[in-house]
Amino acid sequence: MAELWRSERLVRLAPAGAVACSALLPLVQVGLAFSYVGNGVGTGLWSLAATAAYLPLHLRHVRYAARAHRPPLGGWSLAAMTVVILGATPLAGNMWPRAYTALVVSFLLVLPAPWSYLGYVAVVGATAPVAHALGLSWAAAPWLTFSVLGGSAALLLLTWLAAALTRLQAAREALAQRAVMQERRRIDDDLRHSLGGALESIAARGDRAASKVAEREPAAAAEDLTGLADESRRTLAEARRRVRGYRQPSLRAELETAASLLTAAGIVTRLDLPRGGIPDTIAPSSRGALRATLTRLLRAAPAGTCTITATTLNGRVRLVVRAGDTTETIEVRP
After folding, report:
1. What's the pLDDT tens digit per position in 157-188?
2. Most buried among 84, 193, 267, 294, by the most CB within 10 A?
3. Cβ-proximal residues to 219 (8 Å cutoff; 6+ apart), any chain
4. Do 14 and 161 form a contact (C-beta atoms < 8 A)?
5. Do residues 92 and 75 share a domain?
């Protein structure tokens, strides 16, 4: 439970962390505009004004992308951001091309391929020539290119990692909902095929008893009522037995959820179940062993395929999980 809470907290904080890191570099850029050799108060003020104009647009792109969404009207906000950054280039000092980091990051977050890649390459390639035209020497100008490459790679990694965590959380919730729906369908089908027929028989016997009472046949009515009471007790006992069984997890639902989880993680998984069926329940210890096996498979990142084979012998089930060169066997206790 504590691990689940930490995981959910990490998913919530990851987009905020990506946004905070994306805001840090432009603020450093403003400080350099005031203090770097060849710059002054005028270039610093231009850098401050341009940053105040484009930074909210850039952070909006990062915030949506970190939540695994494309920003609405992202093309228009990207166009406005491009105009501000490129328009401030001649005025904001010779260190202003470092602001191209935010521009190329937004290109990759907003534009579809291949336009995002073309924009990225074009802006990164223009960084050194633009910096040289603004007064930096050819010895120092390429440093800005590497700065843009490194800064954009770090910010993109943070943003895409946050988006991956968000997608993983959504997939986990979807799998949990799917498991609940499968269990509900199993219970509904079981009740319909077992208790449903018994309840219909009780209702029919009650109607016959009522009709015989109306026809003043007390002996026949008493016989039907006695049979009705016996059948009701048997049905009640069966209902109690099945309810106790429903408190334990379903083996089939557990296996189907495991296969869905592995498939969502990129591991194509196949279930091989016996034709005669498998027990309805699985003991908590066996369920824990199965989930531990899944955790090891996800961490090891096997070859991309997995087969879960179930065999029955003398009423007991053995699971064999094969993934790449890894094979694990689990004895299932109902």
Report:
1. 888 888 887 877 777 677 667 766 776 776 67
2. 294
3. none
4. yes
5. yes
Same domain, 74 and 149: yes
Question: Are the CB atoms for 303 and 324 separated by under 8 Å?
Answer: yes
Alpha-carbon distance of 63 to 163, in angstroms, equals 10
Give the residue numbers spanning the domain of 261.
Answer: 249-332
Q: What is the 3-state secondary structure (H, E, C) of 117-172?
A: HHHHHHHHHHHHHHHHHCCCCCCCHHHHHHHHHHHHHHHHHHHHHHHHHHHHHHHH
Q: Give 185's contacts (C-beta < 8 A, 6+ positions apart).
A: none
60 closest CA partner among 8, 15, 10 = 15
Q: Are residues 144 and 266 in the same domain?
A: no
Is pTM beyond 0.90 here?
no
Report the distance separating Cα 97 and Cα 148, nearest Å.
8
Q: How far are the Cα atoms of 83, 102, 209, 309 from residue 62, in angstroms, in the given order?
A: 18, 10, 73, 44
Residue 14 CA to residue 23 CA, distance in Å, equals 14
